[in-house]
Amino acid sequence: MPIRWTPWTMVTNMGRRSGGSMPHPTYDFDVIVVGLGTAGAIAAIASAKRGLRVLGIERLSAMGGTGTTGGVLKYYFGSTGGMYEDVDRKAQQVSGSIYTPAIGIGAESKQFVLEEEALQAGVVLHYDTTVIDVIRTDKRLRGVACFSPERGKYTQTCQVVIDCTGNADLCRMSGCKIRTGRQLDGMVQPFSNVLFKMERDHVRTFYMDSGYVHTTDPLDLSNKIMDSALSPAHLRSCFGENDYFRIAPQIGIRESCHIEGETNVTLSDILENRATPEPVFWAFSNLDNHGIDFALESSLLQDWSVNAGLWGMKLSVPIPLEALIPEGYDRLLVAGRCLAVDHDLASCVRMKRDMQKCGEAAAVAAYIAIRDQISLRKVPYGELSALLRETGCLDDSQSEEARSARSSPGDVRQWMTSIADIQAGLASDSPAIAIWSAKRIGAELGNTLISWMEQADEEHLRKHSAIALALIDRQEAATVLLEMVRERDSFIPGGRSRFHHARGYTAVCLLGRLAHQAAIPELVHILQDSGLCTGTNGKKGHHPSEEDEQFQYVSHAIVALIRIGDRHPDSRLLVSQALVDFQARPTTEFYMSLWGNSHFSLNMGARLREVIEQALLRWSATNADSRTQTDLTECFGGKIH
Ligand SMILES: Cc1cc2nc3c(=O)[nH]c(=O)nc-3n(C[C@H](O)[C@H](O)[C@H](O)COP(=O)(O)OP(=O)(O)OC[C@H]3O[C@@H](n4cnc5c(N)ncnc54)[C@H](O)[C@@H]3O)c2cc1C
């Protein structure tokens, strides 16, 4: 006998409130949430639970976005608390009873619970519907234009739009200022293919990094979707018999673009303690940047992840409401990964827990603004924070101070202040915290670092002191750094980092940071004979292969030379010649491995060429003095041709 079934949307909708408690005659809805993914699903439910009339628009046919249809089922850090925890609890209850259990939160279970919560709270759901335009008067949003296959094009008006598309689609349609990627080449973090498989009766997903994509370029995005589906990593030959399950239809985008907000939260703000005193939630993670091409990242990110080796250290990042408001706009909020953080910090402020909290915070701000008929910018922090504290979305125990009081050393930022501790740390094989502690003390430690650097019988102390000295901009570090480069020092300092960096190419990076002209011959030598750069001290990180080592040396050497040329116009001719010679080589293929993907590595040759071309173009605008070029060549004993 067939199962007798009443569609559950009919049951759920019967108890639904009609219209919410704050009807407004002029608008179809109070809030329209566009994109019902990680942030948007919670934003819609939280708004409706506050009594607002909510329309949720989703281009796919399920709620949860990257966390459900995208197959990212597990949590990675993020801070706990907030209404998403109740959703997860319910999803865990249905997982295993009505759907196949999963490692993490099962996609179908979470979708089911999100839909149930949304309908019960009164959210009107428009699936299979894409927002194609905004309705606005100057910088005040009034609604959206959508398209669905059944209904065609239609408009809906509202008092506040929450852009949860992950790509700031609505903000871009509204003309807001947008930033994309890192400064050197505009690239965002690598994307992944998410693979599903069965493991001991559980659905398990894992993420295989597949390269870079320009997320807002439809042609590039489509090509990467097609290419990555056919990548060797996904073919049957790479999997055991009956092992392969399926590839998620959406590629996993870690980062797209970011709005220019009323406030922008930057990595330098966080590291230099200029964070907001008025957070709406705390994000919590390490700077989980997946690319190993750190040479192309910002100098600050290099200092943290490569030069100090602090990749694994976690940061607690307070996010203010102003980072969810596009600069100059009203009635428009963003929630999700495109909030106003800089690219360096985006690798930390993107985790699912935090993005769900971001959705909740946006909803509560919209509620107060609509109730009091005030601008989003005028929402009083006192009431906003009180409401967010009620659910645990905002929780002072997640501040960095509170976390550091209860964490184990090295987990979150706890710096050394005693000179003896710093010396012992620098003399050890895990010097990361000591290096950054010395950098924080700064100039007043300079001469002490020089004296430690001169201790010939203590290799670690000497070399790690040179690294710390370079981080406080002292040129004296160059002698020892050059020694590390010449010997291709393969020692990899230990610590909590999953990305390990050999001391030799760390020194290359630092010589570029110092823009040390006398390093030019050695850097050019790396470009001429990159085959010399191999060997590790046995530690395995995310880039243990010889190919990776070569890529690291060459990419850091190129960027170091460019930094020297940028800082010292008189060395541009010399540097240009070396870079042009490098470009002229018959092959400039340099491969970089990808996280979670042992099946192929990515040719970064073209990317390096682009970086060189940009520098040469920049410099060609200003002609260098040929006499200076001659002098420099002579001063290096004619080593450069
Ligand atoms: C491969 C990968 C692995 C990750 N691993 C982890 C992990 O282990 N743990 C962790 O905590 N985090 C992880 N993350 C990070 C986290 O999953 C994401 O940063 C987060 O889910 C992004 O949430 P979001 O709401 O910004 O975007 P999404 O969840 O992607 O939601 C955006 C939604 O908007 C919809 N949409 C877009 N445009 C439109 C439009 N014009 N009209 C209508 N709808 C639209 C989309 O269909 C989607 O549903 C990972 C991310 C990736 C990509």
Automatic annotation (TrEMBL):
Coiled coil: none annotated. Signal peptide: none annotated. It holds the Pfam family FAD_oxidored. It comes from the Bacteria. Transmembrane segments: none annotated. InterPro entries: ARM-like, FAD/NAD-bd_sf, HdrA-like. GO terms for molecular function: 4 iron, 4 sulfur cluster binding; metal ion binding; oxidoreductase activity. Keywords: 4Fe-4S, Iron, Iron-sulfur, Metal-binding, Oxidoreductase. This is FAD-dependent oxidoreductase. It comes from Paenibacillus hemerocallicola.
